Amino acid sequence: MKKLVLSFVVISQFAFAQFTDINIVKEIHTKEKGLVVSAHPLASEAGAKIMKLGGNAYDAVIATQYALAVVYPQAGNIGGGGFLVGVKNNGEKFTIDFRETAPEKSFRDMYLDKKGNANTDLSQNGRLAVGIPGSIAGFYATLKYGKLPMQKLIQPAIDLAEKGFAITEKEADLLNNQMEFFNQHNKNKTVFQKSTPWKQGDILIQKELAATLKLIQKDGAKAFYEGKTAQLIIDEMKRGNGIITLNDLKNYKVVERKPLTFNYKGNEIVSMPLPSSGGILLAQMLKMSSFENIEKYQQNSTPAVQIMVEAERRAFADRAEYMGDPGFIKDKTEMLISDDYLKNRWKSFNKNAATPSSEVGKIIPQPKESTETTHISIADKEGNAVAVTTTLNGLYGSKVVVSGAGFFLNNEMDDFSVKPGVPNMFGAVGGEANSIQPGKRMLSSMTPTIVLKNGKPYIIVGTPGGTTIPTSVYQSIVNVINFKLSPNMTVNTPKFHHQWLPETVMVENNFPETTISDLEKMNYKIERVSQIGRTEMIVIDGNGNAVAVADGRGDDSVGVE
């Protein structure tokens, strides 16, 4: 059985060779077919097409990521990085860390002025904000788990870039809103800039990006890290105050890490270890809320939300103090997720009132992490599963497009503690553990996660959203496992978020008013926001029946083999 929910078509007067039929599919029920959920219908279709050609989940995730670099330039990328969590059908679990790294010329106080004040404009915009991109290396590291050659996996993205595609209303609005920054930070005109406003149905053709992808198709990862594209990146650095060198690019390395795994309610959670804070936070929050038997309450009820908020508060306080690149700090994961430590952490929980953040951590400012990330969840008919979250950090990253190569560069350096105690662009505070050092990976909140039941993929989930990522994944898992919500309800129900500092609890605009009122009486400060994340989820039951749901908050879409 296959069930399609919600679709629309963008029609254009242009030639049919261009990608103008865009069907947004929000939910599919199927059995023994591969499923792809991503932020854009054309990217999901690219991944599904690869599985139809005989590829597996890992082939599909490479193709989907390349396609997102074309059709979702605000976050999909070859100029950024990310994390991948995979579970093979033989039970093998693995992760690929293709997070960006700090250039060799970077240093701890590089964004401070003469008075010692942090200049976050430099860490967030322009060429000095750029970390060494890891995406292409990550795609090649994934290739050994697939079945098809890279030349075939990259072709859908080349077609999309070369022929062009019709942009949606949301994409047009984003491009128009960012035009001032594109004009400010690019010395050569880019395809994203035009004299009249973008509108729904306009065709975006990216010839330079197509040429870059063709070079990778022909010469492999070296084309990006050592060839013509590398030189174009360096030329772009020289147009401003960028510090990335050819040596930085040539020496970039992916790291395959042991997944962070733990048991929750008889299920095995497989998530990302440091330098992602996500897996640790997820383990801490799930374990702490289990101390209160959260399933005895209703989803989004006052007691359930309070328990979860207080778990989030304690976890994020630990994030600020202890977490960073494990190659540069003492990795305290084992201690942080141990039952003894967490039970001690939970002793200060008061079911009648908010716990002041000053009582659960040293008040040090946190970096503010961008919400402009993107997530892909994929399951294939062979029993393989993959969750991958990638990012440029901010919306369109540094706003800088590599002239001649056609892609945006990240502004990932802002995810370091620019100055310990100073919030980053998303309000997260960081200490010395996440200070800037050459070659270091910046701490991240990305939380690609696979839940196993009886050793087989059960839930594949992730979301964009900066520091709201771990809390959204946490709520998604609790909604399915504890509150028994359907995948659609889980993804689209109103979310909330707390991160220790600031003290406020963010809630989406349609959050239950009675719960908000009750929390305010308990001294919680509530901040209403329009949106928290965009969750992509696949749930597979014990009989192999799969449900894939794309978040209703955006143009996110499901593709099926």
From TrEMBL:
This is Glutathione hydrolase proenzyme. GO terms for molecular function: glutathione hydrolase activity; leukotriene C4 gamma-glutamyl transferase activity. Cleaved by autocatalysis into a large and a small subunit. Pathway: Sulfur metabolism; glutathione metabolism. The active site is at T373 (nucleophile). This enzyme consists of two polypeptide chains, which are synthesized in precursor form from a single polypeptide. Pfam families: G_glu_transpept. Keywords: Acyltransferase, Glutathione biosynthesis, Hydrolase, Signal, Transferase, Zymogen. InterPro entries: GGT_bact, GGT_CS, GGT_lsub, GGT_peptidase, GGT_ssub_C, Ntn_hydrolases_N. GO terms for biological process: glutathione biosynthetic process; glutathione catabolic process. PANTHER family: GLUTATHIONE HYDROLASE, GLUTATHIONE HYDROLASE PROENZYME. Residues 1-17 form the signal peptide. Its EC number is 2.3.2.2, 3.4.19.13. NCBIfam families: g_glut_trans. L-glutamate binds at R99, T391, L392, N393, D415, S444, S445, G466. It catalyses: glutathione + H2O = L-cysteinylglycine + L-glutamate; an N-terminal (5-L-glutamyl)-[peptide] + an alpha-amino acid = 5-L-glutamyl amino acid + an N-terminal L-alpha-aminoacyl-[peptide]; an S-substituted glutathione + H2O = an S-substituted L-cysteinylglycine + L-glutamate. The keyword Hydrolase applies. Transmembrane segments: none annotated. Belongs to the gamma-glutamyltransferase family. SUPFAM superfamilies: N-terminal nucleophile aminohydrolases (Ntn hydrolases) (SSF56235). It comes from Chryseobacterium salivictor.
